[in-house]
Every structure is written in structure tokens, then in C-alpha cells.
Amino acid sequence: MSVQSVSQLNANANHDHILILDFGSQVTQLIARRIRESGVYCEIWPFNQADEQRIKAYNPKGIVLSGGPCSVVDKDSPRAPDIVFEMGVPVLGICYGQQVMVQQLGGLVEKGDEQGREFGRAYVDVTAHNELLDGVWDKGAHEQVWMSHGDRVTKLPEGFEIVGTSEGAPFAFIADENRRFFGVQFHPEVVHTPHGAALYRNFTHNVCGCKGDWTMGAFKDEAVAKIRKQVGSGKVICGLSGGVDSSVTAVLLHEAIGDQLTCIYVDTGLMRQGESKQVVELFRDHYNIPLIHEDASERFLSGLEGIADPEMKRKIIGGLFIDVFDDCKKRVGGAEFLAQGTLYPDVIESVSFTGGPSVTIKSHHNVGGLPEHMELKLVEPLRELFKDEVRDLGRALGMPEDFIKRHPFPGPALAIRLPGEITTERLEILRKADAIYIEEIKNAGLYDAIWQAFAVLLPVRTVGVMGDNRTYDYVCALRAVTSTDGMTAEYYPFDHKFLDRVSTRIINEVMGINRVVYDITSKPPGTIEWE
Ligand code: XMP
Fold first, then answer.
1. Is the dihedral of CA 482, 483, 484, 485 positive or negative?
2. Probe target for ligand 1 pocket from 363, 481, 528, 531, with the most ligand atoms within 8 Å of CB
3. How far apart are the CA of 304 and the centre of ligand 1, in A?
4. What is the pLDDT of residues 228-252, one digit of tens each?
5. I need a surface site. Which of 1, 76, 83, 135 has the fewest CB within 10 A?
């Protein structure tokens, strides 16, 4: 992370920023989101990648210590670098972060007994007041929070006092107001702590004195300047998938460097109904961005002929994509840079406690199979942003709302929504069913409440009866899930009338389907896509 951190720092040097030291909590990213929602830039660093020199150079206005799966009581458990408590900046410790602060500053933490453990909803009785609580919690209040801890603080370091207690944690909320060190046993970053976002806002604004000027408008202007500086008069190519990330990347780049950008849209023949037309119209006709629209559908469909194995499909598509992209690239002539819509969750290094002391870097999902040997320098203007921030950036760039809010769509496209062999006939059936399903979801006003919805065409025929005739046609499965990041998901609880309407329309309007089923599997144990 060190190389990119320097660039991130440069990009945000004009803004106040907060450092989050990650001890491996499942919800560390939520801390970053709450802080950024308060208009303050922040970065997440693994605790073991943060040394004194680096932290001083970053010069944060405040530091947050995240939760984590370890026990501070255990030998060799992670510690914060001492500089964290010596820089004179406010520190907020969350759960493990609170315990590590207490332990390092001379207090005591003990293994929790049966009664001391708290998981899930709990209540804090507020016994004192300080600037972190201003306008949020009053002394004497009884407030809902979300807890997840085994160990607990049993003796405070000098200078600290109790601010709140819960049933299982007498030191649920502590503070040393002089040094502006705060510790909470609960997790203010999760929605189950209803006033948690307001507490983070107080931390960044009241306690750390951040201005809250990190807006998408400001980010856009700075990103434009940074792209111009990086690219100079060089040529840039950008692969468009039709998804939000690559689209926002392209529009941002176009704003920065105009015609030095050429977009490449590879039509694999596996796109949804009307999708290619929509992409080409938006980019070539509306934005006037030079665009190569490569119709490679025959190449893809013949490459996939007879293939039913999901992994084989993915490999073939990935390989062909690289070949076609390479061919198109040659036509641009002299391109030096490749722009990609890599996001912050793809580049955050997380602390890995299962894989030993090493850090794992989350794999890139949205690279679209682009080869590493392309010898192009990368331009990745979104690598500091979360998905919802990318959507905000799209809005700041004036992009159409229905484009910005599109559901995610996988690189291998409809190929992984057609279990079994891919044929043009089955693709066409799937496209029609999918379009009806999405249209009905939009008509019902449900599109934005759903993370992703799509139809799958099963390689199974069943017997039906339509009018006086026997039918023997395919089964269509419908999938709709809610999720925050695609890592876990719940199926969407449509009412029966809605499902009834979609099923009737699909069976009546799409030749080749005579049965519709709804997938009620969560992730895990299922995945969102079927292949
Ligand atoms: P799964 O099926 O793994 O999907 O639960 C999680 C999210 O990732 C998308 N997905 C992909 N996106 N290339 C992509 O760009 C892929 O190969 C790919 N496979 C799955 C999926 O649509 C969902 O949003």
C-alpha cells in the first residue's frame, strides 16, 4: 500500500484527514464510510503497516483504532505504534481498539466471563458528558448500541473516566478529556447503534476540528487536476463494460483530458437487451467520447460453443476479451495509459489472522480480465472511493441517474446466467425474460431497494399446458438480492402478487419458457450468480 498511499496523500493533502488503524474487524470499512459521510477524508491502514515515520508523514487530525478478532490479553496480540498516543491528536478506540489503548496506557483488560460477554444489541447508561456527545447523548440517557466482545476493560489508565456503562461492560464508554482519548466497547459504525454516525461526526468535527470539506465536487476537481498531471499529453484507453465504475471513470477522464481518451466497448454478444445501444448512445452520442464499439459476438459465441462448465466459460471469455481488447488497442495507436475503475475495497489491504502474519490484498474483481503484460501505465482515479461515493461522483459529473443506479453486472455477462450450453436461441429467451422482470421491478418502484436482480434460464425443460396444448419448455429462475457489498446477500422478499404478475408476463410473452421459479437462497450458502 505504500506506493499508492503517497499518491492518495497527495490527492487529499488539502483536506483534513483521519487515520484508521485496522486490527482486523469485519466492520472496519464501515468506520471509513461513517467518517467520509461526515465530509472528512480517511484511510484504512493495517496496524502492522503503520510505523512512526509513516504516521507522522500522513499527519492525521485524529486516529481511530478499529476492533479486531484477537484478545489483548494474549501474548503477541497486536498493538498500536506508540506514536499514536504521543502525537497530541485525538484517538478513538473501538472495541479491541479501546482495549489496546487501555492496555498500552497502563490500565487492565481481562478475559470476559459468561456474564461479561455481549453480542448484539445492548444499552449504555450515559453517566458523564463530553465534546464527543454534544447534541447526541445527554447525561442520564439510556442508549441503544451494538456490542460484540468477549474481553472487557477492568481498570482505567490514569486520566480516564467512565462516560457510560452497560450490563456486561462497566467501562463501555471512557474518556480522557485532557488528552482527548476516547474508548467505546460498542461499535458506533454499525446501523444497530442508531446514533453512531452522529458520534463519528462529533469526533471528526468537534473533537478533531476537521472542516468537513471533502465533498464529491471537491474530489472531482482535484481528480481532474491529478489526471492531467499524470497523463500530460499522452493517450489513454478505457475499457467500458457498461457498469457504473468504468462509466464514471470514462466520464471523469473525458472531463480531464478530452479527446486524448478513447473508450473501447467490446460487445461479447452476451449483453442484456438493449445494453450495447445504451452504452454507445451515452458515450459516443451524448458525451462525444471517441469510442471503439467492437462487435465480437461471433468470436465469443463460437468460442463458447458446446461449453457447459462454468469455470471453462469464465476462462474462455477472459481469454477472448484480452485478445479482442488487444486488437482494438492497436487501432488507438500510441496509447500509453490504461484507465480502470478500481475501487477502494479492491485495494484496501486487510489484516489476515488466518493466513499468518502476512497481509492479504483483496483480488480485483472489476479488471475485466485485462492482461498484465499490456505494458500500459495505469490510471485509476476511483481507487480512493467506495461504491456509493462513485455514484455520488457520477452525479457530480452530471451523469444520468438511471445509469448511475444500475445494478452490478458481472464481466462474464449472461454466459453465467445460462447454466449449460450457450446458444443464440437460449440467449434470446433469457434476454426477453430478464427485460420483463427488470421492467416490472422498476414499475413497482423496487429497483433502488434491490442490490441486484436478474433472470436465469435453466437447461431444464418441463411439461406444461397452455390453452389446449401441451408444452415442453424451459424453466426460468428469478433472483433478487439485497446486499451492501456483494459479499453477503439476502433474497428480496417480493410479495406474491408481484411474483405472480412477472411469472404470468414471462410465460405469456416469452416463447420457450413455461415455468417460473423464485430463488430464495441467501449468500452464503449460495452465491449471487448461479455460476
Ligand atoms: P457472487 O456470484 O460471487 O457475486 O456472489 C458477487 C458479485 O460479483 C459479481 N460477479 C462478478 N463481477 N466479474 C465481475 O466483474 C465476475 O467474474 C463476476 N462474478 C460475479 C456478481 O454479479 C455480484 O454482484
1. negative
2. 528
3. 19
4. 999 999 999 999 988 899 999 999 9
5. 76
Q: What is the DSSP string of 397-441?
A: TT--HHHHTPPP--TTGGGGGS-S---HHHHHHHHHHHHHHHHHH
**Tens digit of each residue's pLDDT (9 = 90 or more) over 175-202:** 999 999 999 999 999 988 999 999 999 9
> Per-residue pLDDT for 369 more than 50?
no
Q: Rounded to whole angstroms, how far apart are CA atoms 140 and 163?
A: 10
**Whole-number pLDDT of residue 345:** 80
Q: What is the pLDDT of residue 371?
A: 55
Over range 365-369, report the average pLDDT. 40
Q: Confirm or reject: Cβ of 310 under 6 Å from ligand 1.
A: no
522 C-alpha vs ligand 1 centroid, how far in Å? 15
Give the N- to C-terminal CA distance of the chain in Å, as an integer: 32
- Mutating to test ligand 1, I would choose from 529, 530, 531 the residue with most ligand atoms within 8 A of its C-beta, which is 529
94: which 3 cell numbers? Answer: 473501538
What is the C-alpha to C-alpha distance for residues 188 and 79, in angstroms, rounded to an integer? 21
Average pLDDT score over the chain: 90
| Predicted confidence band of residue 524 (pLDDT cuts 50, 70, 90) | confident
**Other CB atoms within 10 Å distance of the CB of residue 505:** 16
| 365 CB near ligand 1 (under 6 Å) | yes
Please give the single-letter amino acid code of residue 82. D
Q: In this structure, is the dihedral angle defined by the CA atoms of residues 107, 71, 142 and 198, taken in order, positive or negative?
A: positive
Give pTM, 2 decimals. Answer: 0.80
Give percent of the chain with pLDDT exceeding 90: 76
Number of H helices and E strands in the chain, helices first, is 15, 22
Q: Is the CB of 243 under 6 A from ligand 1?
A: no
Q: Rounded to an integer, what distance in angstroms lies between the CA atom of residue 377 and that of residue 359?
A: 25
Of 367, 383, 278, give the one whose Cα is nearest residue 321. Answer: 367
- Among protein residues, the one with the nearest Cα to ligand 1's atom 18 is 410
Q: Which of 99-113, 310-324, 346-360, 424-438 has the lowest mean pLDDT?
A: 346-360
Is residue 408 within 6 Å of ligand 1 at its C-beta?
Answer: yes
Residue 5 has pLDDT above 80, yes or no: no
**Other residues' Cβ atoms within 10 Å of the Cβ of residue 161:** 13
Q: Is the CB of 452 under 6 A from ligand 1?
A: yes
The atom number, within ligand 1, closest to the CA of 526 reads 5
Q: Whose CA is nearest to atom 7 of ligand 1?
A: 486
Helix 244-257 and helix 216-231, axial crossing angle in degrees, nearest 10: 60
Report the relative pairing of strands 91-94 and 181-184 from DSSP bridges.
parallel
Q: Is the CB of 299 under 6 A from ligand 1?
A: no
DSSP secondary structure string, 252-276?
HHHHHHGGGEEEEEEE-S-PPTTHH
Active site residue ranges: 95, 187, 189
